[in-house]
Design brief:
The protein has 445 residues and is of the alpha+beta class. The protein folds into 3 domains: 56 residues; 160 residues, no CATH class; 216 residues, 2-Layer Sandwich (TATA-Binding Protein). Strands 11, 12, 13, 14, 15, 16, 17, 18, 19, 20, 21, 23, 24 and 25 form a 14-stranded mixed sheet that branches. It has a 9-stranded antiparallel sheet with strand order 3-7-6-5-4-1-2-8-9. α4 packs antiparallel against α7. The radius of gyration is 24 Å and the shape is globular. Pfam families: YycH. Keywords: Membrane, Transmembrane, Transmembrane helix. InterPro entries: YycH. This is Regulatory protein YycH domain-containing protein.
Amino acid sequence: MILVKLEVIGMQRFSNIILRTLLIVAVGISLILSWLIWTNNAKYQQGVQSGTIQTVNRRSVSTTKTMNEVFAPTKIINNTAKSQRLIYNYKYSSVREIFQQLKQAHLSDFEQISLNDSNRYQRLLHQKHSLQLVYPTSVTVNTIARLTSQRRLQQRKDHDINRIVLVLKGNQHLIYFLNDYNFAIYQVQERDLNYQQIQKLIKDNNFSVPVNTQVTAHDVQLMYLKPLKLKPVSYLITVQNNNNYISNLLNSKQGADITSHKTEGQVVYRSGMYRLLNIDNKTDMATFNDYSKTNIPTNTPDLFEDTYRSLVKIGNPLNGMYLFNYDRKNHSFIFRNYVEGFPIFQQSKNGAVKINFSQEGQTILFSKKILQVPVPAERNAVRLPATADIISGLKDNGYNIHNIQKITIGYKWSDDSQNHDIVDLTPTYYIKINDQWKSYADWIE
């Protein structure tokens, strides 16, 4: 009987390996065929327009997200009459779909109704029959106005916000913009918002866990009230060719020659006097410097728009990529890939992409590793404790809980030990202390 069980287990493992291998082969063939079609199309286009150099716009192929999708909120918190829950839909991005509904409404009569009142702020966060669209970082009211095409929402003086609250019952027709750091509450009149469609999107969720948005001294922390289980996932990855980035980032209208210089494990490409592309072949990280871009947009919506154009210019796919951190003081943006509604950490020190503007020029740091398609993962679901237990664990290991800036659940990026074309993503807690993100395990080591 034991031998039979061992044989069955062995056959199941063997079948999983075979399925995984076949899927990788199939995806590989698909990528090769796509490349052949792509390159043949480029040659065909060149033949049609003789005497001109026709280049295929790779960005139009890889970029499938608009600006208001890349800068959409990343979490939905639904307040019912009895509980507060984080919800998500594995089939599509419900938070993005609800955010899109704001474009169809008409927003006006912006006014500040509260400041530095943590009690009132807490009450609004827990208002029954309401919905929160939550950003992982600060954005601004005027940026939201630009993203949702709301001209009447534009303010002379811009304001930082972290979340948008929609009241789903009653006839108030009000939307609130909230700042988690000074507890400012801004009120906006709305009309023509499709509440029926929003309710439909809420009910269509297939992931729901109880949470508590807890106001602290100078911030709001999302607390998971009970342990939860999340599945590890694995993805097939590809490393983009250097030529793609040379074409997208260094080609100039002036036709300047592109030179290259090799050092240990790195290649530096230069176009003219102002643009450099440094590629580290060991880490598959790239750094692009444009010393001619010294003019920083004076208003935040224009800065966000410039950032989006830079993101598109890289040429990497934007599917699953969202803004994770905006540093207004240093004009810096960090983007992370998201999976199952949670951010990916340890892909690099700076997420998937970091874009920085300064009077010395623009700098873009990005990873050449691109997530392609999920592959079957053979690992069991990971049980994550309630957030209160994580805080207690940090305290027991000598950390001052008042130094904890943020806690979030994310996926840890690690290369597969058996296949270099696969990356394993494992759910775990990440904590920000002293402006540094580390996993819970790394903090308590």
